[in-house]
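Try this one yourself first.
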């Protein structure tokens, strides 16, 4: 396991109270041995005027997953922040839900490189 902390889903969600995460409706759904999953509604909070998921909302979801992963990888009392995010919007998402998963690609002493996928499909449970 790569996590140095192991909060419950409820504790992870409560840490986001009165933040952008809560306002966008992002919900953590699973913390695995080396990944975190969440979902976000595609509704009036996260859509662009054309009725599709706003690219900034999907980037905010990716940043949320990445930040949660970084937080769980550091010792209690340590603070971590994001360095960079790059988003490619390959497919549009309409009303409903999008699902995201972050997993560590490489863990260095002071930097964690992760891959984050936001998809209209639920994350497979066997990967």
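Now uncover the answer:
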């Amino acid at each position: 396991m790569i996590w140095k902390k192991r909060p419950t889903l409820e504790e992870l969600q409560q840490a986001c109270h009165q933040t952008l995460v809560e306002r966008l409706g992002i919900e953590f759904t699973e913390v695995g041995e080396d990944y975190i999953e969440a979902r976000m509604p595609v509704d009036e909070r996260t859509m662009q005027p054309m009725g599709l998921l706003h690219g900034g909302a999907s980037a905010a979801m990716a940043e949320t997953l990445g930040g949660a992963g970084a937080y769980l990888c550091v010792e209690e009392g340590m603070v971590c922040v994001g360095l960079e995010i790059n988003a490619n919007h390959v497919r549009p998402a309409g009303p409903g839900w999008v699902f995201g998963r972050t997993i560590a690609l490489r863990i260095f002493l002071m930097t964690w490189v992760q891959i984050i996928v936001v998809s209209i499909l639920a994350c497979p449970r066997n990967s």
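Discussion: The chain has a mean pLDDT of 89. The longest helix spans residues 55-72.
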